[in-house]
Each structure stands twice: as structure tokens, then as C-alpha cells.
TrEMBL record:
Residues 1-22 form the signal peptide. Keywords: Cell outer membrane, Ion transport, Iron, Iron transport, Membrane, Signal, TonB box, Transmembrane, Transmembrane beta strand, Transport. Belongs to the TonB-dependent receptor family. Transmembrane segments: none annotated. This is Iron complex outermembrane recepter protein. PROSITE patterns: TONB_DEPENDENT_REC_3. It is found in: Cell outer membrane. Residues 360-811 form the TonB-dependent receptor-like beta-barrel domain. It comes from the Bacteria. GO terms for cellular component: cell outer membrane. Its main location: membrane. One of its GO terms (biological process) is iron ion transport.
Length: 848
């Protein structure tokens, strides 16, 4: 009996040992130069089970019977590697880690294939999702601090313009009747509304910023460049990230993302982002701060892999913003050429009113009309990728919507001049893109596709005068202007609708004449159609039949209606020659002919002396763009990048925005400038001096001018002049700084925190730009002075487990404007969009 028990125990022990031995996974970790790495952390993803390599780089880890599983190979200063295993390997795994700071290894997909960014003959900047998170760049407005060629101007989400190299959108207030020149794509889906750039990023993997026309690569025509944003995809390996930030002004930001398998061929990912903050401007009339943040967004994705060659991703997202915000603070008063009694200071003196402060950076307002900037944006998309032959066929179908519900105080004072200024908009779009990208022959590769978009936009607006309107509108000394109740409650109801459709066929090939010399021609055919309806109807005010009083009312608001319909076709294209002189030098030259489609005015038109709308301004000519660029991308030594680009862009019939002196022309109107030229130089550089020190920087010089613009609007100080237009040929384009740059660096060292291997780091970055005009026609009062801001971060980061860092933005508490804009009616006062004062806080992140 004892012998039998002993034999059974021996057999069980042997089986246990055998099973245990069979579960062990062995491996060797080295550098890319085959040097063994000691103390590398090897983790089974989704568990706390780990092992450490010895001085020979060897490790042994127990699989614990978990199959399939993913090994995470982590080492400070090197990129984390994931290895998926479906069976216990017979031989030791050989793992060669790549250095974390191998900058030349950054890859992009902008040309619809995976390639190193240094091999792409396009001026392009890449911000990884990790970089964006670490620098606090949670929207495009923060990205401009990392890519100085980007400019974003936003007096509220609707009135947002994004430019690259000072081109893309007319500077100032937004008009729905034109297309942006900078494309904005998220996972291949085109976002038609510039307001999308004000929303928080959700679970971003990488942001690629392409500069210059890209019409032969992207579905929607882009004359100035494109943002190509990719989000993190669902994974069959379980994982999760949680992040929480807290700062002054009660700043609170939470992010979460969870992914994993839902079946043998289905994986999912759900991501959330929420941001809130107290106001940065005090409203002394209400007793509470305004310009708050209140953003929430959620994005879900399902990945289906029916075959090894096909991926199908269904994605849906919705983002909401409910800030008490976007209030502008009066920055100054410009004397106009109107009579003395029509000057702003004389007007408010007659009304016994004083501004709450004469210094904009006291950050005080007394606005009586509530500020509301509510917006909802969302939609869904279906993306199918299938490998066919030597390439991939991609279909991207999407539906999106944007709802805008605003309230503004366009006089920027506590007076009831404009009691209401509300132009809510509902926009929907449907897009479809089909393209094939891949190797055609041994010497030729390329991309070809078709694209279609149909979008509608409906605005039902209200603008209404208050009890102080009579004094601001007063244009004579007649006592009739003081008639009680004449303008109080007098306003307009607006019905503005636009339907825009666009279809295109595009393509580009890459012909490898030799291994080093490539020629890349591209073509595009576009069809665009726009139908617009505009009608406004007056209401309210004193009900009278007196012709003299009715004439005064019509000087403020009048009925107006017009319809316009236009379509246009265009051939455009580009040719690029690229020569790879060596493995470290890649030069290219590009010529591109591009165009921006026709535009239509859907925000009212200025009137002639008879009070009739100037219908010749209802349709805006398309832009014709001619772009020239040469550049060189180099890697002067290991882990370094130094890139240089010289460019010139000429635009005929440049679409520009004009701020009218008439209140009834909501948000300004569009016009064509005869010719514009932008030329400049860009330098991008990144250097890894050691595993402890990295430095990166970028600088751009831009000279943007109106070559010919003879019918420009009058600058603010010339309001009231006997002429209606001004020749501003030779003057600077609005929003164009001659110099802009960014500079940053990081010191780091290996460390362990709560048992996790990672890095302790100190990072500093800065952004600066020189002065720029903030008016379509140069005004000495509407010049934003140059400024520089400095940010810093100190903390510990790890690929897995807990990371923590402290951060500060605008550490020197620099007072600066992001934009200046005149009040409605051009009475002389102008307001500023203020840059944020000093902010600071802490961020905690936990990754599984």
C-alpha cells in the first residue's frame, strides 16, 4: 500500500513538473546590434506575472496555462515590443529591441501605405498620441504650439479657421458658403466643419500634418494641407488605459480606453474623454466666471476580421460641448472717421456707461447677453480594407452631423445694444470614398480613388436690438432717433440654407526610374455644386406707419432675400521628383496646380445706396492655386533629423472674409481678392544626444501678401470714410506671422516607481510667433503683438502600470491675444480673444 502511494506520488510529481516545465517560455533580449540587455521587464499582458532578464539577456516566464497570450518586452529607453503567442515555443524567443528615440523609424500612412516619414517627399510633421498626451495637446489649438506652420483662430467653435502656412480659411468670422482649404480627417473620414478642430481628441494614435496641396492623395480637395488623424484600433489582446488630470481653475480631465476580444474574429474598443474647467474671465454683472470648459466625448469601434486579408471596422462617436464661454473682452477703442458724436467713447458717455476695465488682461466683462456655445458633433463610419493583388482596396462610408446652438454679445459691453445674436445651425454630411493603393508593377506603385460628399446646412437665426441700439446706430442729429421703443425688440429672423455636393476622381503614381530617383505625377478631376437660399425678415420694435421712423429702422435692419446656384468642374494635378542622394539625404521638388471650389454667401449681403443687396457678391469665384516647393530631408547622424523646405504659393481669386459695417450682414460676407502670394522657409529638427537628452525644434518664416486686392473693405479706423473700399495691394495677409517657432527638450533617466520600470523626466517646451494682422484690411489697431509661452512637465512614465507627472502651461504668465476683432456695427470698439493665463496641475495614468 505504501509502495503504491509512493508510486502515485512520484507519477503526480513527474506530471506536475512536466506540465510546469511545458508552460515555461524562454527568450533572449538584445539591442538591434545584438548586445544582450540586462534587467528587461517581461510581462504577460493583462496580468501581474513578470520576469527580468539576466546579464545574458535571458528570461524564463511561466505562461500559467494562458494561451493565447501577449508578452510585453519593456526596457527604459527602448520601444515596448508586443509578441503574441498561440502556443508555447519550442526554442527560445529572440527579441531585438529598438531604441525609443530612433526618430527616423516614425512611419506614416498619408500616401495610403506604411512608410518612413523621412522617405515621404512631402513636408510633414508627426505628433504621436503619446506626445500629444504628454504635452497636454488635447485639441488642434494645442497642436499649433508643436507645429508652428499651423495656425488656428477661434472666437467660438463655429467661427474657427485652421490654416497651414497662413492659408486655408478666410481669417475672421466663418461663412458656411465656402470649403476649408485644410482637410481634416479622422480614420479616413473627412470632417467638413472647422468646428471639429475645437473638440477634444479621443484615443488618438497619431496626428500627421501635411503641408501644401494634397488633392491627388485625399478624397476632399485640400489646397493648403491636411490633418490625417488615426485613432487606436481594437485589439484581440485585452488592454486598458485610465488617465486623470487635475489643475488650477478646477481643471479636471478624465480619459479611459478599454479594448479586447469579443469573439474569435471580433474585437472591440471603447474610449471616453471628458474635460471641465472653471472660467478664466470674470463677469462682474453676473458675479460668476465665464469661458469655462465642459467637453464630453465617447467613441466605440468594432473590428471584424472575416479573413486574414480583410478587416472591417465600424466606428461611432459623439462629442458634446456645453461651456459658458467664448466671451471676448474689449481690448481697445479705435477712432473712426465718423462724426464726433458717433465715436464709441461719446456714445457710452451719453448713455452713462463705463467699461468694467480699460485693461483687457484684467479679464473682466459685464456682458448682459449670456454667452452660449453649445455644440454636438458625431456620426458613424464603416471602413473595409481588403488585400487584392499587390495592394489594398479601401472603402470608407460615413455619416456625420453637427448641431450648433449659440448666444453671443456682439457689442462686447453691458449695454443692451444687441440683445440677441443667435444663429443656430444644423449640418449633416454623407461621404463615400473608395481607393486602391499598392504595387502595380515592379517599378510603379500608386493610389487611385473616387470620392463623394453631400452636405446640407440650415441656419435659423435671430438678431435683436436692445434699448441702447438707437445711440450706436444714430447717423444724424435728428431727434427722431430718441423715439421711445423705436429699436427695442427690433430684429431679424434669418433662414439660410445651403446644399453642397462634390465628386472627384483622383490618383497618383510613384515611378521608380532608379532605386534613388522617383517621379510622382498626380491628377484630380472635381465636380462641385452649391445651392443656397438666404432670407431675413424684420420684426418687432415700435409699430409705426411714419415714413421717417421706418426709414431709421431700415438703416439698422431691412428685409433681404436671394437665391444662388452654381456648379463648377476642374482639372488639377501635381508632379514631384524625389532623389535619394544617400541613405541619409532625400531631396524633392514639387509643382502643384490646385483649386478651392466656388463659394456662395449665406450670411447676408451689403446693400447699395438704394438699400438693395449687392447680388454680384452672392457667388464667389473658385480659387486657383499654383504651388512650388523644394525640400531636403536629412539624418546627419544617428537618431537625428534635419529637414528644410522652401515654398511659394500663388492664389488667384483668393476667397477672403469681409467684416461689414452693416449689422444685418451677419458674420461678414465673402469676396475675392485678385491675387495672393505666400512664400517662406521651414526647418524641422530633432536630435537624440543620448538616452538621457532629446531636443526638438521647428521654425518657419512666412511672407504672406495681397499681391492685388483693390476692393478690400475699409479698416476699422477708416469706417465712415467717403469711399466704401480700399486698395490694400502689397499689405500683409491677416493671421500671417513672419516668424513662428517651437523648441523643446527632455532630460530623463531610468527609474522604478511602485515596482514599475520607467523613466523619470523633466521636459520643457516653448512656442513663439511674431506679430500679425487681425483684420482683412490691415489696421494699426488690430495688430496682435508677438508673444512666447513656456511649458514644462516633471514626472515618471512607464509603458505599463502607474505614470504620474506635474505640468505647467504659460509658466511666465504671459498676457497675449490670440485674435482681435471689431464689434458688430464697427462703432470703434474691438475685442480680444485672450490666451490662457498660467495653468498647472497633475496627471495620473494607469495602463494595463
Amino acid at each position: 500500500m505504501k509502495a503504491s502511494i509512493k508510486n502515485i506520488f512520484t507519477i503526480l510529481s513527474f506530471l506536475t513538473f512536466s506540465i510546469s516545465f511545458a508552460q515555461n517560455i524562454e527568450g533572449v533580449v538584445t539591442t538591434s546590434e545584438n548586445i544582450p540587455l540586462e534587467a528587461v521587464n517581461v510581462v504577460i499582458k493583462g496580468t501581474t506575472h513578470s520576469a527580468i532578464t539576466d546579464n545574458s539577456g535571458k528570461f524564463i516566464i511561466d505562461s500559467e496555462g494562458r494561451l493565447p497570450l501577449t508578452l510585453l518586452i519593456q526596457y527604459v529607453g527602448y520601444k515596448t515590443t508586443e509578441i503574441e503567442l498561440t502556443a508555447i515555443p519550442v526554442n527560445p524567443i529572440q527579441v531585438a529591441l529598438k531604441e525609443e528615440n530612433e526618430l527616423v523609424e516614425v512611419v506614416v500612412s498619408s500616401r495610403r501605405r506604411i512608410e518612413k516619414v523621412q522617405d515621404v517627399p512631402i513636408a510633414i510633421s508627426v505628433i504621436t498620441g503619446k506626445q500629444a498626451e504628454q504635452t497636454g495637446a488635447f485639441n488642434v489649438n494645442r497642436i499649433k504650439e508643436l507645429v508652428p506652420s499651423v495656425q488656428l483662430y477661434s472666437s467660438n467653435p463655429r467661427n474657427t479657421g485652421i490654416n497651414i502656412r497662413s492659408l486655408g480659411s478666410p481669417f475672421g468670422l466663418t461663412n458656411d458658403g465656402i470649403d476649408p482649404g485644410v482637410g481634416f480627417y479622422v480614420d479616413g473620414v473627412y470632417f467638413a466643419r472647422p468646428a471639429a478642430t475645437t473638440l477634444d481628441f479621443i484615443d488618438v494614435e497619431q496626428i500627421e500634418v501635411l503641408r501644401g496641396p494634397q488633392g491627388s492623395l485625399f478624397g476632399k480637395n485640400t489646397t493648403s494641407g491636411a490633418f490625417n488623424i488615426t485613432t487606436r484600433k481594437p485589439s484581440f489582446t485585452s488592454g486598458a488605459d485610465f488617465e486623470l488630470s487635475y489643475g488650477n481653475y478646477s481643471f479636471l480631465q478624465a480619459k479611459a480606453s478599454v479594448t479586447g476580444a469579443l469573439g474569435s474574429k471580433v474585437a472591440g474598443r471603447i474610449s471616453f474623454s471628458g474635460t471641465s474647467r472653471d472660467g478664466l474671465v470674470d463677469n462682474v454683472a453676473t458675479g460668476r466666471p465665464t469661458n469655462t470648459l465642459s467637453n464630453q466625448g465617447i467613441r466605440g469601434q468594432l473590428l471584424w476580421t472575416p479573413t486574414v486579408n480583410t478587416n472591417v471596422i465600424f466606428a461611432a462617436d459623439i462629442t458634446t460641448q456645453r461651456p459658458d464661454g467664448y466671451a471676448q473682452v474689449i481690448a481697445g477703442v479705435a477712432p473712426t472717421q465718423r462724426a464726433a458724436y458717433r465715436q464709441f467713447n461719446a456714445i457710452i458717455a451719453d448713455l452713462n456707461y463705463q467699461l468694467p476695465s480699460l485693461n483687457a488682461f484684467d479679464r473682466k466683462i459685464d456682458h448682459d447677453t449670456p454667452w452660449r456655445s453649445n455644440q454636438d458633433m458625431g456620426g458613424f463610419s464603416l471602413n473595409v480594407d481588403t488585400k487584392i493583388g499587390g495592394g489594398t482596396l479601401t472603402s470608407t462610408t460615413a455619416w456625420r452631423f453637427w448641431n450648433w446652438d449659440p448666444s453671443n454679445d456682439r457689442d462686447f459691453t453691458g449695454l443692451q445694444v444687441l440683445a440677441k445674436s443667435q444663429n443656430p445651425t444644423r449640418q449633416t454630411q454623407i461621404t463615400q470614398e473608395v481607393r486602391y493603393a499598392g504595387q502595380i508593377t515592379s517599378k510603379i506603385s500608386g493610389v487611385a480613388g473616387v470620392f463623394f460628399i453631400d452636405q446640407t446646412s440650415q441656419t435659423d437665426g435671430t438678431e435683436e436690438s436692445g434699448n441702447a441700439q438707437w445711440r450706436f446706430a444714430q447717423s444724424s442729429t435728428s431727434a427722431l432717433w430718441k423715439t421711445p421703443g423705436l429699436f427695442e425688440g427690433y430684429g431679424i429672423k434669418t433662414d439660410a440654407n445651403i446644399r453642397a455636393s462634390s465628386a472627384a476622381v483622383f490618383g497618383q503614381i510613384d515611378w521608380a526610374i532608379t532605386d534613388r530617383l522617383h517621379v510622382l505625377p498626380g491628377l484630380r478631376y472635381n465636380f462641385d455644386k452649391k445651392d443656397a437660399h438666404y432670407a431675413r425678415t424684420t420684426y418687432g420694435g415700435l409699430q409705426t406707419t411714419d415714413p421717417a421712423l421706418l426709414a431709421l429702422k431700415k438703416q439698422v435692419y431691412s428685409d433681404q432675400a436671394f437665391d444662388s446656384a452654381i456648379d463648377n468642374t476642374d482639372f488639377s494635378g501635381n508632379i514631384t521628383v524625389t532623389f535619394k542622394a544617400s541613405d541619409k539625404i532625400n531631396a524633392y521638388g514639387t509643382f502643384a496646380k490646385s483649386y478651392k471650389p466656388v463659394g456662395v454667401n449665406v450670411a447676408g449681403l451689403p446693400t447699395n445706396s438704394a438699400g438693395q443687396p449687392l447680388l454680384e457678391l452672392a457667388v464667389i469665384k473658385p480659387e486657383k492655386v499654383y504651388h512650388y516647393e523644394v525640400g531636403v530631408k536629412t539624418s546627419p547622424f544617428k537618431n537625428s533629423i534635419f529637414n528644410l523646405a522652401l515654398f511659394q504659393t500663388d492664389i488667384r481669386d483668393f476667397q477672403t472674409n469681409v467684416q461689414a459695417a452693416e449689422l444685418g450682414v451677419n458674420r461678414g460676407y465673402l469676396a475675392n481678392a485678385d491675387k495672393v502670394r505666400v512664400q517662406g522657409v521651414e526647418v524641422d529638427a530633432s536630435f537624440v544626444f543620448s538616452e538621457h537628452l532629446t531636443v526638438n525644434g521647428a521654425v518657419t518664416y512666412t511672407d504672406g501678401k495681397y499681391v492685388k486686392f483693390t476692393n478690400a473693405p475699409l479698416p476699422l479706423e477708416e469706417t465712415g470714410a467717403p469711399v466704401s473700399f480700399k486698395d490694400v495691394s502689397g499689405t500683409a495677409l491677416p493671421g500671417a506671422s513672419r516668424w513662428a517657432g517651437s523648441l523643446g527638450g527632455e532630460l530623463s533617466d531610468r527609474a522604478r516607481f511602485f515596482g514599475n520600470a520607467g523613466k523619470i523626466f523633466l521636459a520643457v517646451d516653448s512656442y513663439a510667433r511674431s506679430e500679425f494682422s487681425s483684420s482683412p484690411s490691415a489696421s494699426k489697431y488690430l495688430v496682435v503683438q508677438g508673444y512666447a509661452i513656456f511649458n514644462a512637465r516633471l514626472g515618471f512614465r512607464a509603458s505599463q502600470g502607474l505614470s504620474v507627472h506635474f505640468w505647467g502651461r504659460n509658466l511666465l504668465n504671459k498676457d497675449y491675444y490670440e485674435q482681435l476683432l471689431p464689434a458688430g456695427g464697427n462703432a470703434g470698439q474691438y475685442a480680444g480673444v485672450l490666451g490662457d493665463q498660467r495653468t498647472y496641475g497633475i496627471t495620473l495614468k494607469y495602463s494595463l
